[in-house]
Amino acid sequence: MNSKIKRIGVLTSGGDAPGMNAAVRAVVRAASFFSIECVAIYQGFHGLISNNTKLMNARGANNIINKGGTVLKSARCLEFRTTEGRKKAFDTIKINKIDGLIIIGGDGSFTGAMIFQSEFSIPVIGIPGTIDNDIFGTTHTIGYDTALNTVIEAIDKIRDTAISHNRLFFVEVMGRDAGHIALNTGIGAGAEEILIPEEDMGLDRLLDSLKRSEKSGKSSSIVVVAEGDKTGKNVFEIAEYIEKNLPHYEVRVSVLGHMQRGGSPSCFDRVLASRMGVHAVESMINGKSNVMVGLDNSEMILTPLSKAIKGKSKINKDLIRVSDILTV
Ligand code: ATP
User: Fold this and answer.
1) pLDDT, greater one: 314 or 8
2) 178 Cα to the center of ligand 1, angstroms
3) Pocket of ligand 1 from Cβ distances under 6 Å
4) Which residue's CA is the nearest one to ligand 1's atom 6?
5) Which of 30, 39, 42, 194 has the highest count of CB atoms within 10 angstroms of its CB?
6) Rounded to the nearest whole angstrom, what is the distance from the C-alpha of residue 302 to the centroid of ligand 1?
């Protein structure tokens, strides 16, 4: 055990994700279990710069495991990108006598954490909290599973109206750089086609596929489109193109947007966040730094932050094959 760690700080940063609260709770409770004090830092790096902090004991994390969003609030903080900003942040570390930082967020937050660590030698450990599942070093990020379930529920509802009116729906889901949400919910919701940033299927292939399905007797269809789809066109442009070429189809677009971030975390995300929070605190006590906790084969693992940021989380290509087969 590294007895140097007497007090840790915890913050949530970047886009919020369901399960972040469960991770905060786990960090606070694990710290208490190991007789370490925990300082809650509000509004991400912004709160670190402005010393928006509060000591939180085990009871301070009561009744948050089931809550979406983040009770610590999150922020995108431009000032932390500057040396001056990070100097102010380190003042907060000194004032509060914080010996190590646990950062719950995405790759941007980890980049900031790494730079901060290299400048001021403060131990940092990352917990991946983002609905996109786009971080290397973990098969699942906190919030991803909940987002999948939220999207599936929404598409199921859209399907009801699509069937009733014989409509073709284009549903845009989150995923600017990663198609995990689109690919998995597309299969789970039985979508006709799935457009993702990793693969360029081309508009003509989409058109052919929709023509084929129409011929085979389908009168309504759902196409799931990731925000960052490779065709380079947004969901409205894609819908317009299809409507022009398939004039007898009634085409509609539904952009699910921020609702995908919200809601009570799934059981999977709560368990994942609880395990990651405990593992992060234990790792910090054991002298680890500059690493991210992750899930691999049901086990907790550590990956250097540099790898977590630079490595690409790969989509499962077998899912594309399965989707193609099932939309026969
Ligand atoms: P999400 O995946 O949900 O977008 P994220 O952690 O990637 O989450 P970002 O907005 O990219 O979200 O980053 C969060 C914060 O991390 C930024 O607002 C900024 O304060 C800090 N940050 C990001 N990149 C850097 C950097 N290169 N240097 C210093 N700080 C950074």
Assistant:
1) 8
2) 17
3) 13-15, 45, 76-77, 80-81, 105-109, 111-112, 115, 130, 132
4) 106
5) 194
6) 20
- C-alpha of residue 117 to centroid of ligand 1, in Å: 15
Residue pLDDT, tens place only, 184-216: 999 999 999 999 998 887 888 899 989 888 888
**Mean pLDDT, residues 238-265 taken together:** 93
Query: How many whole angstroms separate alpha carbon 13 and alpha carbon 79?
Result: 14
Task: Map 58-72 to HEC letters.
Answer: HHHHCCCCCCCCCCC
Q: 7-143+265-310 and 145-261: same fold? A: yes
Q: Whose CA is nearest to atom 30 of ligand 1?
A: 112
Tokens 């693992």, located at residue: 301
Rg (CA), the chain: 22
Distance CA 119, CA 112 (A): 11
- Ranges of each domain in the chain: 7-143+265-310, 145-261
The CATH number of the domain covering residues in 145-261: 3.40.50.460
Is 7-143+265-310 a domain of CATH 3.30.930.10? no
Question: Do the Cβ atoms of 260 and 182 come closer than 8 Å?
Answer: no
Residues annotated as catalytic are: 132
pLDDT tens-digit map of 64-115? 999 999 999 998 999 999 999 999 999 999 999 999 999 999 999 999 999 9
Atom of ligand 1 nearest to the CA of 110: 6
DSSP class of 129: B
Q: Is the pLDDT of residue 60 over 80?
A: yes
- Global pTM value: 0.96
